[in-house]
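Key idea: predict the complex, not the pieces.
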Amino acid sequence: METRSILEADKLTKRYEDGVLALNGVSFSVRQGEIYAMLGANGAGKTTAINCFLNFIEPSSGEARVDGIVTHRDSLEARKRVAYVSENVMLYPNFTALQNLDYFARLGGKTDYTQDDYAAALNRVGLPAEVHRKRLRGFSKGMRQKCGIAIAILKDAPAILLDEPTSGLDPQAAFEFQGLLGDLRSEGKAILMSTHDIFRAKETADTVGIMKNGELVMQRSSADLAGENLEKLYMTYMAGHSN
Ligand SMILES: Nc1ncnc2c1ncn2[C@@H]1O[C@H](COP(=O)(O)OP(=O)(O)OP(=O)(O)O)[C@@H](O)[C@H]1O
Ligand SMILES: [Mg+2]
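Result:
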């Protein structure tokens, strides 16, 4: 089956107001049913790239497209097509997990979900029934992250953006999260995530990109990486090897 390219960065360039060149002509794409993992040092430009897809920031030149829609030209339409989980998920501390799901689902225009659907989504991300009616205030970082992932799943958008999704998860949760990503891939989602977890990136992703100083210095398919030590390769790129 011919798959469509859902997320496209096209010579994406961002110079922040203070002069920092965070992205310098970055181009890549993520197709339906593909997981793209973006690695790179702190400050390499990963979050900036993700934020361009959400139109949280406008590129200085080039463009980010979601399902063909240029994000800075039609941000409302583009945002309908992406679900997003940030490193520090912003949820309502005084709402329960179920209430947060209901609130954000409605905000995203989904009005036909039942309480059972919400409970199923929470179970799916590994939040057990006994915490469904607890306020978010008492949740650990990883539990909030799982709640954010449940919200992203319920949005049922063709693209999912994840900024360091496993940073707050314990090893078991990270393992389960990997399985969840695999399921979402099978459902045809285009998934872009930034991560510092080289091991999981190699395990999970169909394509791995390495960002350095605002540039995409490496991009390889999982087939290309099969016999490679990705950690070693990463270090080589960090040490200045280019191409
Ligand atoms: N709002 C901003 N204003 C000015 N500079 C910024 C802003 N946001 C990020 N930067 C700069 O842009 C560069 C890229 O930052 P970005 O947050 O995209 O990196 P990152 O790859 O996500 O890093 P990390 O792995 O630490 O999350 C850095 O030099 C950073 O200092
Ligand atoms: Mg970041």
